[in-house]
Every structure is written in C-alpha cells, then in structure tokens.
Amino acid sequence: MFGKRGNEGTKDRAAGAGGLAVAERPSPAPQRDPAPSRAVEPVRAAPSDVREPARAAPTVIAPPQAAAPRERSGSYYETKTQVFAALIDTIDLSQLARLDAESAREEIRDIVNDIIAIKNFAMTIAEQEDLLGDICNDVLGYGPLEPLLMRDDIADIMVNGARKTFIEVGGKVIETNVRFRDNQQLLNICQRIVSQVGRRVDEASPICDARLPDGSRVNVIAPPLAIDGAVLTIRKFKKDKLTLDQLVQFGAISPEGATILQIIGRVRCNVIISGGTGSGKTTLLNCLTRYIDEDERIITCEDTAELQLQQPHVVRLETRPPNIEGEGEVTMRELVKNCLRMRPERIIVGEVRGPEVFDLLQAMNTGHDGSMGTIHANSPRECLNRM
Questions:
Q1: How many helices (H) and strands (E) are present in the chain, helices listed first?
Q2: Where are the beta strands (DSSP E) in the chain?
Q3: Ranges under pLDDT 70 in the chain
Q4: Is the four-CA dihedral 349, 355, 357, 363 of positive or negative sign?
Q5: Of 123, 230, 283, 337, whose CA is between 20 and 30 Å from 218?
Q6: What is residue 103's predicted lDDT score, i.e. its pLDDT?
Q7: CB 269 within 8 A of CB 346
Q8: How far, in Å, CA of 332 to CA of 352, rounded?
C-alpha cells in the first residue's frame, strides 16, 4: 500500500497533508539510505492528485492514564529527525489517512523499525519504543500532548512555549517533563487543533479559541503576542458528566441545595450562574440542563461549543471570528438575537461577557422562560452589577 515516491511529490504531500507531519524536514536534508523494501505493493500518486489535501487523520488510540515521557536528550531528537524524514520519504500520507487508527499505527511502526535497522541506530529497546510512540503521535495525533490528553485525572493542560508544560491534577498545578522539539513544532500542533474547527492561528490572527474532537476547550495565543513561543491552554472535557447527586457526594453542595436546583431546572426558572475562572460554572449548568423536559426545543449559543445536553431537540450555535480581511465575524449578540427567530423554548448561552446580556435578558422576559447562562463574577451581587 505504501511505497517510495519522488522527492518533489513527497514534499508536496508533507506540506499539504493537513498538518499530519509536525516535525520539520531538516535543511539541508541528511543523506538517506534507500527506503526499506515493503512486502506490500507500492502505490504512486497520480500527478493530478499530488497536491490534493489528505483526509483527516484517524483518531489516535492509546491507553488511558499513559505515563508522561522521559526527559529527551539532544541526540534523541537528532535521531528522531532523521527517522522521521526517512519515514516521510517512504510513506504515502494520503493512503495512510484511509486506514483506521490501529492499522495506521502498525504500518508506521513496521516502517520505522525497518528504518532503524537499515541505518544501524544504536538504541535500547526502551528508547526504540519511545521513538515509535513519539513518531506515531506526531503523524496521527498531537505529538507530545498525547500522553496528557489520554489521562482522565488532568483538568487543564498549560503549555508555555516549547520547554514548559504544566497540568492541573486534583486542584494543584504541577510542571511535567513534556517538551516539544522547538517552538515551530508547538505552533504546528496548535495549527492542527484549530484547523479542525475551521479556524487559524498565525501572526495575522494570533489569538484563537477552538475545541478538540472530544469537546475539550482550547485557547491559543501565538507570537508575536506570546514572547517565548506559542501558549496553548486546554480545559479537558470530562467523558463522565457530573450530576447533582455526585456533587452532593463530593460535598460541593448540600442535599437540600441539590433538590432546589432540580426544581429550578424543571419549572423553567431563568438562571444565571456566576463564579470565578475554573469554579465550575459550566459543570453546574450542565447539571441543571439534565432536568429540562425532552419535548422542549433548546438552542445553545457558545464561543466554543462545550455544553453536553442530552435532550433530542437541541440546536447548537457557535460564534465565528473574523477572517484575515477582518470580515465575516458572527458575534454572540448576533447569535442570541437570531435565536429569537428560531422558535426556542429555552435559550442557553455558554458564557455572557458582553452586550449579548441585554438580548438574553430580553429573551427571558418575552416568553422564553427557563433560559440559562453563565457569567464571570465573584459574587451574586457583583454579577448583577456586571449585567
């Protein structure tokens, strides 16, 4: 299925593969041995489709709670660069994108093992396994971030340039030994993340909000605004959604308070949830939405879609930033205004932070009882002052 192809076609593939390969080709390219022979029949791309974008990469499958990688030496990255360059010359990324995640991973592992054997790299078994895992993550996933994304105990991932990565576990922020090869690799991974939701991050548009396929919330701020390299912040999406009963078990709320909130959600009270950053506003909003009747038409408006409503009749709307010419922006206020023309029974705004609060309050007072939203404020009184 995969075979050696010409250098020009290979370069075009690597450039147009939708960010599949995050490692940069060294310049000038190191002398390479001939590509390892494959038992499968080589497939050459027709000239007409050489520049055709590759399909989306398969989702990476990796064990949960994966351990963070060990500290890497300079020679490790040197070896990885050479192996990666030989891999890109050998493999057809468009064919790889058609495979399921496990098959693609196995194909990459086979080729990388052949390259290591042919080039006679001196590596221990543990180092070779680390190299295989890193290259698979670079091609199919989000590079060094993969082990962290697979852990369910992490609430936030904070990348401050290529050399510093922090995580929040159990309410405490700790530094990890996760490192990127350089700032360019980090920026490539940021580009891959935001491009999945039709957005971009570069010097012309250095700030971007996006989300991962699992719903995790992502913020990127790139140079020149970020002086020491791109800053990537990921608020992890919990696969198991919290309920009011669980909040009672954790001691976050009293049983009586949970009962009152159930009633509030059921009887269509208008609700604004206020609190500081990371205080659980969206979590509580998700808990309340569980008590909305299934026959109601719900419309959600968010900057980055992260609400997890289970009702069958839900319309999800998301704002859009301006394009490179500064046009095409769709603001939260425009979304909330448009909601009123869509026959909503409830309007839920993920986060109110600007003039859209006026339109939400109007909706709450014009027959759309049971509408909900969140707002950043330190207390209920300050919430009212902000509104």
A1: 13, 11
A2: 154-160, 165-169, 172-175, 207-211, 217-221, 231-235, 271-275, 298-302, 314-318, 346-349, 372-376
A3: 1-74, 76-77, 239-240
A4: negative
A5: 337
A6: 81
A7: no
A8: 8
